[in-house]
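queue> holo job accepted (iron/sulfur cluster)
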Amino acid sequence: MGYIAAPCVGSGMCCKKGPCAFGESISKDKPQCKFLEIKEVVDSVEVYKCGKIDEIVDQPFADINPAFGAGCCMSLFNDNRKKILALIHAGRMKLPHCSPRS
Ligand code: SF4
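queue> job finished
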């Protein structure tokens, strides 16, 4: 039986914790990646996207890091993810596609 990761919903948490191999922190004191962008705001809930995806997606090993399309790596203690999931379950928004070029 294979493992199926929970889908990415664009909470932004992983890129806020620190940059991937293609990203860059805002500053020494702010580890969030400077390329993280707000994709949309639904009922005051922010959904994020990578602003560098077109540059990254065809690079060698981009399928491993940042692993677009591989699912969520930070599903625990992630309040923004919970809010986005609640909006999806309430029919207020669709599951965001966090796969390449979405
Ligand atoms: S996936 Fe994009 S936004 Fe996230 S850390 Fe990498 S470059 Fe930054």
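queue> The chain has three helices and two strands.
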